[in-house]
Amino acid sequence: MGGIGIVNNPRAGRNRRRPAMADRLRERLEGDGEVLNASTPEELWAAVSRFRAAGFDVLGVNGGDGTGHLVLTAFAQAYGDRPLPRLLLLRGGAMNTVARGHGISGTADSILRGVLERRRRGIPLRTVERDLLRVEADDGLPPRYGFIFGTGAAVAFLDAYYRSRRPSPASAAWLIARALGSAVRGGPFAQSLMRREQFGIETDGQEWPDGSYLAFIAGTTPEIGLGFRAFHRCDEQPGFFHAVGVTAPLLSLALCLPRLRAGRPWRRRYALDEVARELVLKGERPRFTLDGDLYQARSQVRVSTGPGVEIIVP
Q1: 9: nearest Cα among 73, 72, 67, 94
Q2: Cβ of 282: how many Cβ atoms within 10 Å?
Q3: CA pair distance 148, 280, nearest whole angstrom
């Protein structure tokens, strides 16, 4: 059957500034699919049911990383062992890290136009296959799915990012500069980001060294944001993700940023890293992020390799 089903989140960052975008996407599809708004769990599940029944082979997400993670979670739960539709990221949010990491740029309308032109001319779509992370916390909720997991400083940074007046890549870059300046002076902002946490870590049954971590992160896509390729080993083995325990202080970590921009390996004095199928993190009510959304567990989070999904790329 085929077709493109687009989940539109009207509350996502860019969509709030462009409320007519959903109608433009509907006009652009011209019978090749459907656009449904989903700003509540009920609306999202209605979209899942409708798109699955229609047999759409492409799932469009008009929102940012957080919207994508919620949409993928709903589809992964609904599809079970069935292959997921190909994923079309339309960059409608304030945070579009996964799209940017795959070279996807432009507006939702221009991205969709390019895909439709290829489909209508019979040109195969280019895709990159990525595994999803399956994240299970002991908070009584079902598993969540996404691409980028983080704790510690990753959560503290997002707290500060969401408190900014208008979250955007520019405000994120400003926060990094502010953090480094504060670290040089020993200021309170850097101290708020540098609070270390004691975690017990296992990957594939192997215990990591005891100690405190500035952050613990894991991903199945190379970029963690702003062009920093923290997960350069995510493609090393199919079915594995890249796990990184950052041990360096903030100022020392700053020296590693040029290496991360270039996608070069972590240095041992800055971080411990491994590729794994499963990660178990234990701590005192650990907070964590999955694709920019924030959560809290009671004492344990389990991260494992989830289903694969093909991301449509330019």
Answers
A1: 67
A2: 16
A3: 15
| Residues 299 and 169 placed together within one structural domain of the fold | yes
Neighbour-count burial of 281, counting CB atoms closer than 10 A to its CB (0-12 exposed, 13-18 middle, 19+ buried):
buried
Instruction: Characterize the bridge pairing of strands 86-89 and 293-296.
Output: unpaired
The single residue listed with the structure tokens 């040029």 is: 258
For residue 119, give the 3-state DSSP assignment: helix
Domain final position from 125, 150, 184: 125
Choosing from 76, 101, 125, the residue where a domain stops is 125
- Provide the number of structural domains found in the chain: 2
Q: How many whole angstroms separate alpha carbon 246 and alpha carbon 248?
A: 6
Contacts 24+ apart (CB under 8 A), 103-110: 103/313, 103/314, 104/313, 104/314, 105/314, 107/21, 108/14, 108/21, 108/24, 108/25, 108/62, 109/21, 109/24, 109/25, 109/28
Kindly compute the dihedral angle of the four CA atoms of residues 104, 109, 110, 114, in this order, to the nearest 10 degrees. Answer: 90
pTM (two decimals): 0.93
Does the pLDDT at position 5 exceed 60? Answer: yes
Q: Which pLDDT tens digit goes with each residue over 111-139?
A: 999 999 999 999 999 999 999 999 999 99
What's the number of CA atoms in the CB half-sphere (13 Å) around residue 207?
6
